[in-house]
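TL;DR need structure tokens for one chain.
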Amino acid sequence: MTLNVLPAPCQVAGRSDLLERRLRRYHQRFEDAVRALAARHPRLADLAASFPALLFALAVPRTRLDPARATACVVDGAPLAQVAALAGLPLWLRKLPPEAFVRPIPRLPDGELFRRQIANHLPRSPKLAPIWLQLVAETAELAHEPMAAWIAREYVRSPRRVQTARLRLICLWAWFSSQPVTFGHDVIERPWAPDLRIDAARSAAEDWRTMVALHADLGRLPITDMWLRPGRMAGYEFVPLDSTSAITAEAKAMRNCLRSYGYNLAHNRSRLWSVRKDGERVATLRIACRFRDPLPSLVELKGPGNVDVSRELWWAARQWLHKHDLSQIDMTQHAWETAPLDRNSWVSLWRPYWLAKRRIPDWLPMAPSREALEAL
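>> reply
TL;DR here they are.
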């Protein structure tokens, strides 16, 4: 004859205290919902210790997830892997504490390689866990699984350096880095790679956005009115930088910031010229209005790496400038923010992303938007 031995009162009390401590660790906004589910059955309550994420997901399901079947499976004693699959949760979430869950758990990456990688990049502090989890989810949605593993690593390494305000830009740049037949990939100078650190990635993404803005500002056709005519003076040749390709080539060769002048050029505020001697680039020249002078002036003239140039070159440039009838040059400036972005360039840039993600997000609209570009 076998006797059923009831647990001692101290054991029951100890188990109850442990459960209570676990439940108190959930976010106060959802604690009542989690407690209510845990009270329905001891096996559900056990999830607070064995799989906190699963208990939370069943108590606070995401949109379009009906937790009834998964909840019944827990009560029936089904394996956790089976229940997690029904709830759409990856098993690697088992290691996250209750503090990690401050909103319904979104869909998360769960590829084989990702599962191996993410185990090495889990947050050490419960306080960091909510932001870490949100970063992983958003990065996987905006970019791809390798990027999600990367942001998990970078956030654990240096939480303060990961700025969520620039996450979309970095994710777009990383996504296009893996799409070699797209316009967005063509304008990338430094592609994303898993071994990059966050600061280098942010810098490369900002450089990419500058190139995107240049193309959106100027479009694919050359600037038709360069104000001045190409020519030679004192052995120097003055060559117009009248297209995105010409500006990009000059910026790379001369190691300067010409790529950032798209906005300025689109509003008719200046024109850019390359100064060459014997076929070699020796300086970059910017023509614009100086102070209240309505006529074009030599505003900037710099050598490679923005070094100063000789007095001789300044004199040659001034002589070339004054070969023109400056009074006949139309330098009417457009008010800032009034020059439209080029629609063809805008759509060509983003269409592959829209198609791959099967949506046009409100932060990357179909209509060209300076506000959207600046907000990335």
